[in-house]
Amino acid sequence: MGEKLPVITNKEKKHLLNNINGDFHSAELTAIMGPSGAGKSTLMDILAGYITHGVTGQININDKVRDLSAFRKQACYIMQDDNLQPLLTVNEAMMVAVNLKLPSDLSLSEKAKKVMEILESVDLGSDRETKTFELSGGQKKRLSIALELVTNPQVMFFDEPTSGLDIVASKQCITLLKELASLNRTVICTIHQPSASILDLFHHVYVVANGSCMYQGSVNALLPYLSEVHLTCPTFHNPSDFLLEVISGDHGDYSQILIQKSKNGLSQRWRSEIPYSAKNGLREIYQTPVVTQPPVQLTCIKDTPNTYSTSFGHQLLVLLKRTFLVISRDKTLTYNRLLTHFCIAIFIGILYYGIGSEAGDMYDNFKFMFFSAMFLMLTSFNCVTTTFPSELPIITREYFNKWYSLKSYYLALTFADIPVQICATLLYGSVTYFLTKQPVESFRIVSFLFMCVLISLVAQSFGLFIGACMDVKNGVIFGPFCMLPFTIFSGFFVQLNACHPSMRWLFHISFLKYGFEGMVLSVFGYDRPKLPCNSEYCHYSRPEKFLSNMDMAKSTYSLAVIFLGGLIVAIRISAYFVLRVQVRRSRGKRR
Fold it and tell me: Domains in the chain, please, with CATH?
């Protein structure tokens, strides 16, 4: 790999890597080292194919220019944060991985056997039924590795694999990576400041500083390399600490000297071959081999039209099952939502008890329906605004590592939450409808509940769209403001005929107006007979008179259904394309 990496940062072109060179061998564990901001993660992202834009130069595999699409099928990238589904058990997470990453014609028993082999190899066999949020940091890291071992990748990239781990867990993690490399894999990881014992586990060190290579070679040759320029590491001093001191200029400015000495990564003088005995004589801390199948040569695999191991339909089924499982265990998103709708329904039903059967309470009934529309809109919207921001790191990892297509993930996530939202809406609508004593006519009941569901699904769609556009903080703050115009122009606060002509178009795009009108029409429309009046005079004894005064006499239920249904489809399609952009941007942000 060579040449430069120009990246646009704050509208200025900046070279993050400068004409660096290097090579990484199979059966070798490589540490990319350097201080913060040196370009370690940028180099790793380029090698893994995580960053492709703004890069010049060439990456070869076995002396041939890399075919990135084919390469990504044989490689995996395990990032610094262990982005796992917290409510799945270890075994469930592994079964999702094998069902997505292995051919669908493989039997369930074969998949289960492979899962058990991999879990035993990473010392997680006894934790199969443990939920991932209950795992320790080291166990989460091993599970992240196990998930990618399903496809037996030949090149493995790790970004700061020891981050957040104690010295014991860190050493176990790097020892595991060394075992993976011993099976003829190329294993590359970034690491900031390893201890001396951890540094000794690496075969190869690649040192980056200010976007240039200051050393490429074996661990044993590092100190002799530095001593050739009169930099002597004190006795009992951690070599990695001394190296960072040199890079930081604590011992003088040796940056250009070391870059020239290593020929910016081109020199092979300090590389050393790993003896065959060393490859097979590693100290084992796990009892079973990591994989039972021999690795394949990178050059033997060519790109195929099928980007993923399984079909779109199979991916959708697996992801739907996973999402339903997560939703069923999520108390906040599922059970609390149902409980909230039920409790508010009881409260509102008692507050407006019996208003639907008396002409004198017509306007109170009108206010009840508007509150119901508002409540359903806000709860449906707020429940999903954090969905994509919280899931984005998981999507990015799994999508980049070729688990599934983004379309299958998006459809699974959006479809899975619809039944829960519909159940919550029907629960609220049914309880309030009968407590407020609305007309007991089947077509009115169905029309009212159906309109409630449409309002909820439109608001949910907007929540998904806002969640795809913004992070959690901005979504929570600015999301409700996006709902404000729909509320103002709903026809409750200001009616269409009383509004300034220049603003009337806003009524025609307010989904809450159409939903609210649909609810009112389902109760008061369709030639409902005169309501009984318990007072001397009831101005709105006839529902058609009330509809006329509320500027709803010419409104139609079917138009509301068509508008809201079309809006649901349009917003969800838009949210998908926004999510695509966000996934790509999340990769670019790592620069």
Answer: 4-299 (3.40.50.300), 312-588 (no CATH)
